[in-house]
Amino acid sequence: MSAGPADLSPLIAATTRWLTRAYAAPGGPLGAELAAAQTRQAVTVAAWLRYPTDLDAALVLGLGPGGSARLDWLVGADCAAPDEAGDAWRTWVDEVVASWAACLLGDPALAGAAVTGALAAEHAGGLPLEFRRLTAPDDSDRRAAALLRHPDLVAPVAALHRDALLERLGPPAPPAAGDHARAA
Amino acid sequence: MAERAHGGGAADNDVVALLKRQHQQIKELFHEAETATGDRRREAFNRLVKLLAVHETAEEEVVHPAARRALEAGDRIVDERLREEREAKDVLSRLDDMDTDDPDFLPTLQALRDDVLAHADSEERLEFSRLQEKTSPRSLAMMAKAVRAAEAMAPTHPHPGVESATKNILLGPVASLVDRTRDAMRRTMGGKD
């Protein structure tokens, strides 16, 4: 974590809440928590990629992350309905970060590349962090996030800013020589 | 700022103290879920599920990777803890599917409590104390901050620039404003963008 003053956790927590409400986990409270854990990791990685420096983070926290208005409209009125926690948190939702996180949850290869990029952000502070709920979910994680990890279901949100994510990550690494041999 | 789910106080600057206090909170929630009845048992169990989930995820994300690198036989120590966590998760999943009034619920919960507290004790003795010895206070503080961030809950107040969520809807996305401002600042500071 960055030692600087810019703390992205309100943006990350609110954007996580939006995604987990829009694509609710089936089953009881454990499923909801397992879905929230991997979504929060995806959102963290997305936020660190989108705002990699303390200056970037201070900027978005100062100007405001923009809120969930377009996302609410996109997925329908149910998600926009006030919840037990009120609706103030929606002002902390970041549409680009939500879209990038949706891309990562639906694409394991992209998630791996994104984690590598995110760990280079100032916010990682050089700690050897691991985001294995995102990159290596077990069966119970996958069941809990069946909707969130379904590329077709998250497509409307993921498509909003997918191009910008791909541009941020750069071209994919070329396949290893052994892959060429196997392909041939 | 985000609301804090768990933690705070003297443990702010030491990840080991923070996680040990959460172990104590887990023990207390087990006791509450075992002694309560009816809806109160269900409510205590739900809080226990939440705390266990965020606590274990934060450990996996922040502490275990550091222990693997810092400790002699770190891989073996961490792999054993991860195995215990997976077993506990399986039992928790069975409990999650049960009615709290099911005759099997309480004995299963008590067995889980014994396993989780033994797991916490192993973490504290074999992993945390050694990590504390081998890690600088600054790194322990950064790890504590990372754990708190991983456990943060969404704010309950609107962003200061927005008086209400309704007004926020009128404003719409400001992504382009952030981008334009960031580009302008970089140009001003002599960047190439």
UniProtKB/TrEMBL annotation, chain A:
Stated name of the protein: Uncharacterized protein
UniProtKB/TrEMBL annotation, chain B:
Pfam name, any one: Hemerythrin
InterPro entries membership: Hemerythrin-like
Gene3D superfamilies reported in the protein's UniProt record: nmb1532 protein domain like (1.20.120.520)
Residues annotated as domain Hemerythrin-like: 15-129
PANTHER family: HHE DOMAIN PROTEIN (AFU_ORTHOLOGUE AFUA_4G00730)
Protein name, as recorded: Hemerythrin
